[in-house]
Amino acid sequence: MSQTSDQPARSSQPGGLDLRAGAKAVHRVEGRNKQALDTGRSRLIVAGVAFALAFSLIASRLVELGLVPPAREPSLAATQVGDRLGTGRAEIVDRNGIVLATTLPMASLYADTQQIQRPRGLPSGCGPCCLS
Q1: H helix intervals, the chain
Q2: Of 89, 93, 132, 86, whose CA–CA distance to 113 is shortest?
Q3: Which residues lie across from 92 on neighbouring strands?
Q4: What is the pLDDT of residues 45-56, one digit of tens each?
Q5: How far apart are CA 11 and CA 27, in angstroms?
């Protein structure tokens, strides 16, 4: 049984691979395996196109934001300083609702010791702690 040069040599290896020296390693996929590979390839192509589209949309929006000047002033920057809400500090209460701490409006008095010219003429209520 001699083989002629017109017919390809049959491989005795499983999977139909011919491992002789100089032979091309070609693996033919047929049946369910071929269908699974085709499905996987088409899914990869669809996913690649979707990612490319998403990337191009984001890139074009970034270019638009960077190069095109805004048509109007942003609404946040256009608000006046007097429009801010004037909320005070809330009272601190315990779980029974009893007030533990609150904010009282008080006048503040302080003295900058570097600006006092005659420290001896200070009232007697201001002791050495005021002249530190």
Answers
A1: 32-67
A2: 132
A3: 101
A4: 999 999 999 999
A5: 11
